[in-house]
Amino acid sequence: MSGKSRKKPNIVISQLDHDRLMGLAEDAPERVAAVADELIAELERAKIVAVGKVPAHVIQMGSAVEFKTQDGQQRRVTLVYPGEADIAEGKISIMTPIGAALIGLAPGQSIAFAARDGKMQELGVVQVSKPGEALPPVAADGNVEVVDFAARKQAADTASDDEGPGPSAA
Description:
Helix content: 25-40%
Structural class: alpha/beta
Largest sheet: 5 strands, mixed
Number of helices: 4
Distance between the termini: 67 Å
Strand order of the largest sheet: 5-4-3-7-6
Mean pLDDT: 81
Radius of gyration: 20 Å
CATH class: Alpha Beta
CATH architecture: Roll
CATH topology: Chitinase A, domain 3
Order of helices and strands: EHHEEEEHEEH
Strand content: 15-25%
């Protein structure tokens, strides 16, 4: 991630999120006018698709996101509407500079944005969950734990075979 100015990455957003967020930004209070303007700019350049056509790896409202800042810090957040925001729970509002920057991005993409203090910042998306799903846990060494669901199911199936037959209909 460099500090050089470059073209913003392509983004994708559902028609539903686009309509809701455009209304939210257009009705935003004066104190968040700069963020609202940035959000509108992002929405205007987005590729708009039907609700079920947004790829699972693209940040939507309700997505859990892991991103890396230009200083190397990695953060996990969930992108939410302003009334649901709770920084202690990692829920950040779409009406923040980071929230407006994240919408529509996918892993591997990065974007520069103006922070509240006016300084340019850059972040890169590491991973994204579908709305309502959590990201995989991070191990103590900072690595993401990869869950092998096929192996887990096979182990569960083997364990249930060892227990003998289940209840009978007597």
